[in-house]
Amino acid sequence: MEERVRVAIVGSGPAGMSAAGHAASLGMSHILLEKTDHLSDTIYKYQKGKHVMATPEALKLRADFGFEAGKREQILDGWNAGAAALGVNVRYRSEVLKIEGEAGDFLLTLAGGATVRAETVVMAIGTQGNPNRLRCPGADAPQIQYQLDDPGEYIDEHITVIGTGDAGIENALGLAADEVQGNVVTILNRGTDFAKAKKANVALLMEAAAAGRITVRTETSPADVRDGELLLDTRDGQETIRCDRIIARMGSAAPRKFVEDCGIRFTSEEREAYPVLSPLFETTRPGIYVIGALAGYPLIKHCMNQGYDVIEFINGNTALKPADEDDLARLFAGVPGGRTVDEWLALLRERIAIFHELSALQLRELVFLSRVRGFRAGEVVFERNDPGSSLFAIAEGSVLVEVSPTDSAITVGIEQGSIFGEVGLISGRRRGATVRAAEDLVVVELSRTAALKLIASVPAAARAVARISIERQLLQIFGSGLTRDDVAELVEGATVEEKRAGAVVLKEGDEGNDIFIIRRGSMIVEKEIAGKPVFLSYLPAGSYVGEMAVIDGSRRTATVRAAIRSEVIRLPGEAFVRLLARKPDLLKKARTEMERRREVNDFIESRKENFSGSVDMYSQTAQFLVDRGIGEATDVLLIDETLCVGCDNCEKACADSHDGLSRLDREAGTTYAHIHVPTSCRHCEHPHCMADCPPNAIQRGVDGEVFINETCIGCGNCQRNCPYGVIRMDSVPPRKPSLLSWMFLGKGPGPGEPAKAWRKKNAGQVEQPKKAIKCDMCKGIDGGPSCVRACPTGAAIRVSPEAFLTVARLAEDR
């Protein structure tokens, strides 16, 4: 017999279960349709013993089922008991195949042929059944799985977890929790940030890494799945590791075909897009509502609140406000405009480009994690060289960017709907310019975590941020008075491409059609001479290549390949040629650069006959330095061993300038020919040490120096994340007597770092906590780096790679 109800709820996850529970408590005729044989399949599939968090803590829970943080099993038992007590009408093993009809009379057809009639339908089916799949050779291998039920089932295996969202981190922790299991666990993070994971989970992961239970690989992705091993694309090239099993937890997407077949429209064609919803959760098909993860709100408390709210709406209580309404009202209270929460949210989504394709629910969550701020005309939003990595979106008004450090009158405007602060977000550097309100201004300030999560979760937002950053990078690099309109065609045709370490961007002898800007990472330029590649130069982020062949129609004169894992912006050559035709100053600038590069090429060609001489040696030395990670450095300490006398004055001076603790180890490191690279910070373009610093104690200074401030808590994350071993954890030693006291009275340990015995003797009864210590380029000390000033022979030098790694230096010294 066909069952008729007022509301049919599809899916018994936290959202659907909460909806059914509230319908039952109101005495509303309902049916909860679940395709498995148990409630809440999403939570049921969590790994055994998993601790389930109840975040956000500040959010009120309104539901007929209780929910507090606890073990998976306890939560499921409580929900099962609650469903029985409320009298929820649940039908198991009832997969819905299609939904027909219209509001007031929907027909749901179930697997097996049974049907249900309902006045309204609430879809709470989630996305877990549609996981994102690996996309690399071997992606269909049998050792790959997309779900982990019981970590205890796996013993003595080499297991790789792909994905560092909450699910991936929790799976890795579970697999490495019991040493008796003997698993060797590795987790891969494509980037350096953990944008999609809760802070608590990231902290637990780093603790496990510090204890040696898990290997965390950042800037790493799978390249090829093979029998018993996994080929990785890493920052420095490809590497093979043993791998018996892969747990792929890379997120999931909506079961789009089924949802669209029900007559529901999505916000865009992107796979990760969500259905279009009204503030009452109603879809574009009247009478059908969507809640839970399918609506874009995956957190359990959010889902349960939606289940409660949607039943209230269906029951006629359309005036009910969401549980976060009071919190959002307080957030908007200090902003001029006098709008309601709904009015503000509608305005933000309408005006701000990166918010256009967010659902109402996604936007509420994002604003909940952000700040909305108002500024009067002329007020400073932030100053040049201020620390900060947040992103600003302009809801009302506009800003002026003071592009010149010496003349505040030279400005560039950014209009309503756009963003600023993206350079700090992407690079982690201090603010590059002062920004003022050009008129009364309202901005949404997204924290770095919120902004990165937005970019990672919403493709349209990622494209908008990329487009704006490309446009501004073009204007900065090419200069010559260009405007946004001038580069519009280039921006429209630009694409961002990721290049693994060693990948070829341009090949000598090929025809050239496009130009490339190095967005992130670095490149090396080589030319084939006498059958072997000769290192020509090093190109850091912000450089561009390929214009020579595009401008004069010649073939590529050299090979350009990635020194480390990098990103490049590909610009269409034809559009660039049209731009040059309109802008003679830019053409002149480009031709000047071309002539400089041709001089270097001519110099190399002239040395063919005695190639085994200085050019060959310099090329090999430069390649050695790139292979040692100099490709991502911005400032590196090098020692010329033909001049070094081993006096250790460099280390002593460093210690005397930094509380008695040396930031370098002269003897450690590697050497090629006469160039020695000691263990000292390279001040990377994108510092790995910044990737997970809880107090945000690691900053970049005005001269590019990466330093650690006094807020360091000694967690050790930076030391673990640094691939070059240049960070040490140590306690600051007691203050030494003066140099005169040592010389004339024999007090103290003398210049340099005091011996451990002296430190222990003079430290007193209280052991000082350890903190992270690294080179800061003698920030704030007159005269520059102490190590260089103290070297009596001039053996120690600090240089930027682009100034050192180029054969052009040989040409200049001819």
Automatic annotation (TrEMBL):
Residues 635-667, 704-732, 769-802 form the 4Fe-4S ferredoxin-type domain. The keyword Cell cycle does not apply. GO terms for molecular function: 4 iron, 4 sulfur cluster binding; metal ion binding. It holds the Pfam family cNMP_binding. CDD domains: CAP_ED, DMSOR_beta_like. The keyword Electron transport applies. InterPro entries: 4Fe4S_Fe-S-bd, 4Fe4S_Fe_S_CS, cNMP-bd_CS, cNMP-bd_dom, cNMP-bd_dom_sf, FAD/NAD-bd_sf, RmlC-like_jellyroll, RnfB_subfamily. Keywords: 4Fe-4S, Electron transport, Iron, Iron-sulfur, Metal-binding, Transport. Residues 354-455, 478-597 form the Cyclic nucleotide-binding domain. This is Oxidoreductase. It comes from Novosphingobium colocasiae.
